[in-house]
Amino acid sequence: MRRAETLFALLLVVGAGVGVREALRLPVGWTAAGPGSGFFPLLLTLGVAFNAILILGKSVRTAHPQASEPFIPRTAFGPLLVVFLPMLAVIALIDYLGIYLGGAVYLAGYTRFVGRFGWVKVILVSVLIPVALFLVFERWFLLPMPKGVILEFLLYGR
Amino acid sequence: MPILSVLNDLLYGLGVSLTPTNLVIVLAGLLLGTAIGVLPGLGGTNGIALLLPLTFSMTPTAAIILLASVYWGAIFGGAITSILFNIPGEPWSVATTFDGHPLAKQGKAGVALTAAFTSSFIGALVSIVLFTFFAPPLAEWALKFGPPENFAVLLLAFATFAGLGGGDPAKTILMTLLGLLLSTVGFDIVTGQPRMHFGLVSLQSGVNFIVIAIGLFGLGEIFLTVEEGLRLEGIRARLGFRDVWETWKLFPRYVATIVRSTILGFWIGVLPGTGATPASFMSYGLARQFSKHPERFGKGEVEGVIAPETAAHAAGIGALLPMITLGIPGSPTAAVMMAGFFIWGLNPGALLFTEHREFVWGLIGSMYVANVVGVVLVLTLVPVFAAINRIPFSVLAPLIVILSSIGAFAANNQLLDLWFMLGSGVLGYVFKKLRYPLAPLVVALVLGDMTEQALRQSLIMSQGSPAIFFNRPIALTFIVGSLLLFALPVIRSVRRRQATSAPERTADRE
Lengths: 158, 510
Known about the structure:
The complex is a heterodimer of chains A (158) and B (510). By secondary structure, chain A is mainly α. Chain A has 2 domains: 2-61; 74-156, no CATH class. Chain A has 6 helices and 2 strands, in the order H-E-E-H-H-H-H-H. Chain A has helices spanning 2-24, 39-61, 74-92, 94-113, 119-140, 148-156; strands spanning 30-31, 34-35. A two-stranded antiparallel ribbon of chain A has the order 1-2. The longest helix of chain A has 23 residues, at 2-24. Chain A starts with a helix and ends with a helix. The relative contact order of chain A is 0.09. Chain B has 510 residues and is an all-alpha fold. Chain B has one domain. Chain B has 20 helices and 2 strands. Chain B has a two-stranded antiparallel sheet with strand order 1-2. In chain B, a hairpin with a 6-residue loop joins strand 1 (186-187) and strand 2. In chain B, helix 5 packs antiparallel against helix 16 (357-388) and helix 6 runs parallel beside helix 20 (473-498). Chain B starts with a helix and ends in a 12-residue tail after the last helix. At the A-B interface, helix 1, strand 2, helix 2, helix 3 and helix 4 of A face helix 7, helix 8, helix 17, helix 18 and helix 19 of B.
């Protein structure tokens, strides 16, 4: 936990440094239109840097109450990856699968392998929910979602 | 005079909210909100962020009534899971578990639920009355604000986070600055110059608030829930008419607690940056301190349910007061609602009262209607809502992820936003684990443009001299107040070093 705290604070310091550099590429002083467009960002990035350094200093100096605890409990590592990796995959494949098909695959995989559902339930859940969502968002509220090439082809033949 | 005109406006607002369409919206919002409140891993803030895209095609009045009703529903619903399952459906119902669940285990689930809903209702109703009469004069006063006053009051809002939020003030301030910084990405609001995009074209259109909120509060929450592992062991709820009646007979005994919790809750809600969650904890603590039988708390004391529930709902109402009058959201949930204002083409703040009477008074009217309808709804439908919790988490988790993706995409019709959402989800998880508070980041992100504009306009007025904040009386008052609030954690930590270490308050979730 403590290492994570220190590392993250360090990351924030570096990030703030990059931010300061980005702000300095803009006019930060007085311009014809008052304070330049970089004035406020510069102020903020400097503030972030200052506080990040404070946090970093405190983390290095003082004893952390849960110093020896790991940042992610070992038992939680598997379940976390099981949620995260499919999320990553669905977003990465969204051009092909779209939200509805991607969602169906995600639901099916998750209920089957995490929830240990029987196949009938798996198919019911992963068909009915995406269809319901499709009707609500696409049809009822007219919000066009990415449908992916497969669903586009099936629905509109293109 | 003013009282009569307020009553007149209120009648008009009730009329607006009682039209058949708006009544249906109230009902739908309450049902959705209660379901959101009941489901663990799906909070009010995220729930409202997810629903925001659905309001794009509505009138602003219908939209705000929907979102507000969802908020009230979520506050009611949070209590159900706390009492029956010992799992807070919402952060503000954590304190309700302390005595609510023991009561349920003793077979008094009906008493606990009735007490929770009824006190929630009373806290809400009294607060709405306070709201009705405080809002118009506050808005009228705020109309006199110029840019320096606006900046000073925004600074005061940020200072309350640092001063009253609890936790490490350096982290709170850092998160506030980070939120403001994120709002500067994109085009400069004054000169239109693209900035802070680090050479990435995709960042030039800015960072979308809804996407960030959904990631931080939606996905981050899922990660945390998965990490903690979710086990549901529920107690069956049956709420008979007798339970309700028997519990109501107990209420006169707790008048003092209810009054105290309402005032405390409302006031904490009004303060920007704090919300229903700290209000519920403080109210619980106070009730125990004032009780003649503090030892009964934690073992199933009805008062231990009444106190946090009253305060939580009062704070929920209070949080909307600065939003509607000053344009400053009193809680992250209010911040998400306020993000909606811009989308619906409204500018939050005092001008709403004069320019959008239907919107403001429709909202206020709907608060009365929604809370009356809400309490009846939850009292009668407890078993139905409790059954929602039988939805297995393995369906719920992917469903929330899919809904989050839909919400994030709909905000801007941009595929890249899904990556931003995922990134903020991971960051949200890290932030929570390392105790960086999320609320200031979200509120600051919404207020970023207003803050920068107020600051730069003030400096233009004074030709660059910061003295302008000190020689205008209202601005000066706010500035002094903010400085005091910023100093508060320092004073507190010095004191703590002298005394023994006090337990840390957590107020970062709402």
